Automatic annotation (TrEMBL):
Keywords: Methyltransferase, Transferase
Segments forming domain tRNA/rRNA methyltransferase SpoU type: 65-201
A UniProt-annotated Pfam family: SpoU_methylase
Domain of life per record: Bacteria
GO process terms (BP): methylation; RNA processing
Amino acid composition bias (Basic and acidic residues), ranges on this chain: 25-36
Keyword Methyltransferase: yes
Entry protein name: SpoU rRNA Methylase family protein
A molecular function (GO) term: RNA methyltransferase activity
Disordered: annotated segments: 1-36
């Protein structure tokens, strides 16, 4: 059973306090959370559950969507993308480049995901080929298809670049498709974290089960 960290056991913020005795006889429940309270950023149905139990339950209904993020500049947006990936319960998050990434914006949601590291683009591409999950780049580059005019594959890996620089040339070449979010103002690009959220939501409109709790 994975123990919560100090941030998860803080006494302030949303959540619930200690569970009154007697405690339910449920192996999914974490004794530390039952005694100290559960103030984690989790759905109410997961209150007092151990991390391992939550992950096991999420694994029963993961979406066949993967997210890949190029980690060349320790971009603070990576954490935000990971948090959104958790919200959409994706099958996996792939960090390409540096193993250490900026977790601040993730709000410890990465512990409920399957996070994979790829040292370079070639390694991600090899995984894509072996698993049969196509890479779909998200960047407003020449030749990209407007997101609103395309249906993303049900099984795919959306690939995002760092804030400002976008996808590298090598990654663009590795992606079989390239989509872009249509913009209507003066800015050259939108925030990378926002772009990831928009694209995942677009995928969900086609493939997520709206009846799923």
């Amino acid at each position: 059973m994975t123990a919560p960290d100090d941030a998860d056991l803080r006494s302030d913020g949303p959540g619930v306090g200690p569970r009154p005795l007697p405690w339910p006889d449920d192996p999914r429940l974490d004794p530390d959370l039952l005694s100290a309270g559960d103030h984690r950023n989790v759905e109410d149905r997961y209150r007092y559950w151990s991390v391992d139990a939550i992950v096991a339950d999420l694994d029963t209904h993961r979406h066949p969507l993967h997210i890949a993020i190029q980690n060349w500049e320790h971009d603070f947006n990576i954490g935000s993308m990971v948090r959104t990936a958790n919200a959409f319960n994706v099958a996996g998050v792939h960090i390409v480049g540096r193993r250490r990434w900026n977790r601040r914006g993730a709000m410890v949601t990465d512990r409920y995901l399957h996070v994979h590291h790829h040292p370079d683009v070639a390694d991600l591409q090899a995984w894509s080929t072996a698993s049969g999950v196509p890479l779909v780049g998200v960047d407003n580059m020449p030749g990209s298809v407007p997101l609103e005019r395309t249906t993303l594959p049900r099984e795919c890996c959306l690939v995002f670049g760092s804030e400002g620089t976008g996808l590298t040339e090598e990654m663009l070449a590795a992606c079989g498709r390239l989509v872009a979010i249509t913009q209507y103002g003066s800015t050259r690009s939108i925030n990378a974290g926002a772009a990831a959220a928009i694209t995942m939501y677009h995928w969900a409109l086609s493939w997520a089960d709206p009846s799923r709790d």
